[in-house]
Please model this.
Amino acid sequence: MRESKIYLTSVTPVRADGSGPDYAALSKFGQIVTLTESSDNVVNDSPFISKQIRERLIGYDPRIDYMVWAGGDPLAAVLVGAILGKMGFNHIKWLRFDRLINPETGRRMTWKGNYMPVQITL
Model:
């Protein structure tokens, strides 16, 4: 069996302060495949983006592969779910980001946390 793939629904642009998601934390689950880029316009170019997503999902196996939204356009994640349903998949493995709590402030930290696998039935 091949290594799992992590399908990143969209790439998050790095903020002006240099902060952003820790994609390295995803790599422990498998090889990262990007479905949409930060420059893609999901709203105004959805036919092209849908085609791009379908092409990048060739070989997707819901038994071993994961989907993840690590920031970026949330509509890309919605579009990916709709495409997967239309492709006939009835469940997906999702990597949910659980933010850590800063012990000094008691508030959740934006980019610090762990990914936890969950299964979603479509």
